[in-house]
Task: inverse folding
């Protein structure tokens, strides 16, 4: 929808917004129940906290290993997640803005002729995304072992493979394989706490991004004419 003073576009799909809600709830449940189990806190019975942890873990893994990649591929947004030379320049612009007051980079790139975004993610958000998937992989494989040492899929003893690798590495830290799994699982939990603080506290609370937050949590739309982070292109189809 466009007139002289407005250019309203869909920034987030319904599936993206629903996945974001589920991510928030499941991650909060994971962290809370995980620390109740790990520290023996009295807020829930161990069995109840463990059940909450398993349920929230299943939701969190499904969202991040299945729903989010599926959404990015179907919507043609997968390329937006690559950290490019342009992102490196924008990241330098963010740093320069913070320390020297330089012009804040425009990282929301919209092609008006093709009616699609070329980029939506803040460069810091892309780096956080990569780090989050590393932590998610660590949490997934160690969680398999901590859940059960007998997990098999299609005849492949996954828990045994993970435990064999951990048992090979763990003597370097004077730990058992299960002990190393617990340590790595805990480290992944702490990383997600740090990532939430960086993502929500430092990136998303930037007043320049208020439309982005409104789009994610409310209607999925934004007015690019009022977005100080937006650059609107009008490229030919064969460019």
Result:
């Amino acid at each position: 929808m466009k007139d002289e003073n407005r250019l309203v576009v869909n920034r987030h799909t319904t599936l993206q917004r629903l996945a974001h809600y589920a991510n928030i709830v499941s991650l909060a449940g994971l962290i809370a129940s995980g620390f109740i189990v790990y520290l023996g806190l009295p807020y829930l019975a161990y069995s109840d906290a463990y059940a909450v942890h398993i349920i929230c873990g299943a939701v969190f893994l499904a969202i991040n290993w299945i729903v989010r990649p599926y959404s990015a591929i179907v919507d043609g947004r997968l390329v937006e997640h690559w950290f490019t030379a342009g992102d490196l320049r924008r990241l330098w612009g963010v740093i320069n803005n913070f320390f020297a007051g330089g012009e804040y980079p425009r990282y929301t790139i919209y092609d008006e002729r093709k009616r699609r975004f070329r980029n939506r993610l803040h460069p810091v958000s892309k780096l956080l995304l990569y780090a989050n998937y590393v932590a998610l992989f660590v949490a997934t494989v160690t969680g398999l072992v901590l859940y059960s040492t007998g997990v098999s899929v299609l005849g492949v003893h996954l828990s045994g493979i993970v435990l064999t690798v951990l048992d090979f590495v763990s003597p370097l830290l004077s730990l058992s394989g299960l002990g190393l799994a617990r340590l790595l699982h805990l480290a992944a939990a702490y990383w997600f706490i740090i990532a939430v603080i960086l993502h929500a506290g430092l990136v998303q609370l930037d007043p320049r991004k208020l439309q982005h937050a409104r789009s994610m949590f409310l209607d999925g739309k934004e007015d690019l004419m009022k977005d100080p982070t937006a650059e609107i292109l009008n490229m030919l189809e064969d460019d």
Remarks:
- Strands lie at 8-10, 108-111, 116-119, 152-153, 156-157, 221-223, 230-233.
- Residues 46-74 form the longest helix (29 residues).
